[in-house]
Write a structure and sequence with these properties.
The complex is a heterotrimer of chains A (about 240), B (about 120) and C (about 130). Chain A is of the alpha+beta class. Helix content of chain A is about 35%, strand content about 15%. Chain A has helices at about 35-45, 105-115, 140, 155-160, 160-165, 170-180, 190-195, 210-215, 220-240, and strands spanning about 5-10, 20-30, 65-70, 70-75, 90, 95-100, 100-105. Chain A has a 5-stranded mixed sheet with strand order 2-1-5-3-4. In chain A, strands 6-7 form a two-stranded antiparallel ribbon. In chain A, helix 2 packs parallel to helix 6 (about 170-180), helix 6 (about 170-180) runs antiparallel to helix 7 (about 190-195) and helix 7 packs across helix 9 (about 220-240). The longest helix of chain A is centred in the C-terminal third of the chain and has 21 residues, at about 220-240. Chain B is mainly α and about 120 residues long. Chain B has a domain at about 60-120. In chain B, helix 1 crosses helix 4 (about 60-90) and helix 4 runs antiparallel to helix 5 (about 95-120). In chain B, about 45% of the residues are buried. The radius of gyration of chain C is 22 Å and the shape is flat. Chain C contains 6 helices and 2 strands. Chain C has about 130 residues and is mainly α. The longest helix of chain C has 26 residues, at about 105-130. A two-stranded antiparallel ribbon of chain C has the order 1-2. Chain C has one domain (about 15-130): 3 helical TM bundles of succinate and fumarate reductases. Chain C is about 70% helix and about 5% strand. Chain C has helices at about 20-30, 30-50, 55-65, 65-85, 90-95, 105-130; strands at about 95-100, 100. The chains are: A alpha+beta (about 240), B mainly alpha (about 120), C mainly alpha (about 130). Chains in contact: A-B, A-C, B-C. Chains B and C meet through helix 1, helix 2, helix 3, helix 4 and helix 5 of B and helix 1, helix 2, helix 3, helix 4 and helix 6 of C.
């Protein structure tokens, strides 16, 4: 590791400075050094006051999301070798910043909760556990499988200007998970989810910018899910109007 | 239990926007090619556009399809995007923008479809 | 539980200039500006047909104004750019499934471009035949 790279990290230390500021670090790197490795190096060797979230190092826990040169990335899945001389790391956009690279994701959690992202089945014939389980064919699973790969990392929210402009917008991941369960043949809870999706701040705030799908580290295509949700919300609203 | 306020009008605007988007992509290029470029540039001879025969066409049933597919639906497509662009650029108030945007689209549709209908019936 | 102090970044009106993806998005949205002009031209054309031969001739003269032709050239480019952004979204929003397989995106997009070409060729051919 003879080469080093200069990395700028946006710091926010409310007890010292009321505004965020940039700080430079010189980090050794090779072909395999990820952004997360660089942050760990800074924390261990250069500056133990740096705060950031991480856990699995393998793009499944979804906790190391940061902006790299203004684009949402998972720190563990993004490598220093991909960048030239400019590497600016800052906290995920559109969320309140608590400290350095740590954001407050409560609003995202609220939006997730609002769409009930779990199987709802109150029918009499539902499986009761033990040896009694649901049956699902590969064709039935194919309908929702792509949307079930979401790891709740929040990159799509940081990529979405509509969420940036109005944080009451349910947002890409929440609507995608609603669509994921709506498409699941084991689920009977579509009606309960559609009320939230059919609000102004539900699917209708989306203008198909599509950047959410570009940045998604799991190739979920939230933009497609949100716009499938518009068709469903239109149907739901029409049925509601007809029923008075 | 949270009270949900369903946006009753949005499905209508979105349906018109989507239908207009298909028309903008599939019908409008042909219309621009003929009436915006080939006719005025004289590439298609003027005899193809003589008043007497085109009047029957333009203010008849083909004209109704033209008014709907090349003017009315694309107008709703356009004004829906303009309404959302105003929000993107933080211009005006959403409730007011909706009124003038869809109002203008309705007016354009009425002017196009209306003049054909008056001649048809 | 009380939340710790936090910094809330605000969005600037020029947010869309910060990334190429957003610039292309705004360009896509802007395709409707020349479209509104063209729709206005077509409304005027229908009204000219309704008014009489004289109005029709002066409408044709208006359409032949070099500036109007230039704007309509831009409108054609805008409509094709719109189509190029719109078609790939259709199979994503309305996937056509046969069993567990989804119809390939390229086939659907190619089919839609074929429809654009067929309509354009048919309309041009019809007016050439009239002449």
């Amino acid at each position: 590791m003879s080469q080093t790279k200069s990395i700028r990290v946006q710091r926010y230390l409310p007890e010292q400075e009321p505004e965020p500021f940039w700080q430079n670090y010189e980090v050794p790197f090779d072909e395999s050094t990820s952004i997360l490795d660089a942050l760990n190096y800074i924390k261990d060797e250069l500056d133990n006051t740096l705060s950031y979230r991480w856990s699995c190092r393998m793009a499944i826990c979804g906790s190391c999301g940061v902006m790299v040169n203004g684009i949402p990335k998972l720190g563990c899945k993004t490598f220093l070798r991909e960048y030239g001389t400019r590497v600016d790391i800052s906290a995920l956009a559109h969320f309140p910043v608590e400290r350095d690279l740590v954001v407050d994701m409560d609003i995202f959690m609220e939006h997730l909760e609002a769409v009930k992202p779990y199987i709802i089945d109150k029918s009499k014939g539902r499986p009761t556990g033990e040896s009694d389980t649901y049956r699902q064919t590969p064709a039935q699973m194919a309908r929702y499988h792509q949307f079930s790969n979401c790891i709740n990392c929040g990159l799509c929210y940081a990529a979405c200007p509509q969420f940036g402009l109005n944080n009451q917008f349910l947002g890409p991941a929440a609507i995608t998970l609603a669509q994921r369960y709506n498409l699941d043949n084991r689920d009977k809870g579509k009606r309960e989810r559609m009320a939230a999706l059919s609000e102004h701040d539900g699917v209708w705030s989306c203008t198909f910018v599509g950047f959410c799908s570009t940045v998604c580290p799991k190739h979920v295509d939230p933009a497609a899910a949100v716009n499938q949700g518009k068709i469903e919300a239109a149907k739901y609203t029409l049925i509601n109007l007809l029923n008075g | 239990m949270m009270k949900h306020h369903i946006a009753k009008d949005e499905p209508l605007w979105w349906a018109l926007f989507s239908a207009g988007g298909i028309c903008f992509a599939m019908l409008v290029p042909a219309a621009i090619l003929v009436f915006g470029l080939l006719m005025p540039m004289g590439i298609i001879p003027a005899s193809a556009f003589d008043y007497e025969s085109l009047r029957g066409l333009g203010l008849g049933w083909p004209g109704l399809i033209f008014a709907g597919g090349v003017i009315a639906l694309p107008a709703f497509h356009a004004l829906h995007r303009i309404r959302h662009s105003c929000a993107d650029l933080m211009l005006g108030k959403e409730s007011v923008n909706k009124v003038w945007a869809y109002g203008l689209a309705s007016l354009m549709s009425l002017m196009a479809v209306g003049v054909v209908l008056v001649n048809l019936f | 539980m009380q939340k710790p102090a936090s910094y809330r970044p605000s969005m600037s009106r020029r947010w869309w200039l910060q990334h190429q993806h957003f610039v292309l998005y705004m360009l896509r949205e802007a395709t409707v500006v020349p479209l509104v002009f063209f729709a206005g031209c077509m409304i005027a054309g229908l009204w000219a047909l309704n008014s009489g031969a004289e109005a029709w001739v002066s409408w044709q003269a208006f359409m032949a104004n070099p500036l109007v032709i230039l704007i309509n050239l831009l409108t054609l480019a805008a409509s094709l750019f719109h189509a190029a952004t719109f078609f790939p979204l259709m199979p994503r929003v309305m996937p056509i499934r046969i069993g567990a397989k989804t119809l390939p995106v390229n086939a659907i997009v190619g089919g839609m471009w074929a429809v654009v070409a067929i309509i354009a060729i048919a309309l041009v051919a019809y007016f050439i035949w009239r002449a």
